[in-house]
Specification:
The protein has about 120 residues and is an alpha/beta fold. Helices cover about 20% and strands about 25% of the residues.
Length: about 120
Amino acid sequence: MQITQINGEEQHMVTGYAPDHVAVNGVRYSASLILRPEAVLPSWPVSDAAQLRVEDLEWIRARPPEILLLGTGSRQVFPARAVWRELRMEPWGIEIMDTAAACRTYNLIVAEGRTVAAALIVDS
């Protein structure tokens, strides 16, 4: 799906997505990634939400956002119970959804001017 940028600021915005990629400012990423308005961490080494470890989110933990969106691929999958419990203890709110929903939600939250990060799993 193609997305039109909703603001004119120089920020990293999702401009398209499909099960096999996420496009950020027109650049296609075919591997999982972490996205913030000011930065992109390409090739995030997580391909399955069920295997997610808290350590996989160190890049986000260094500068906690107001909200973390976890996009879990083509369907919503929750991390292991112990990981989920730890993530809820972090200083951010967390929402877990499929990657398409996370992409749409990310753009809306950025447009609101809120601090957000999206950890997006791309199905291989």
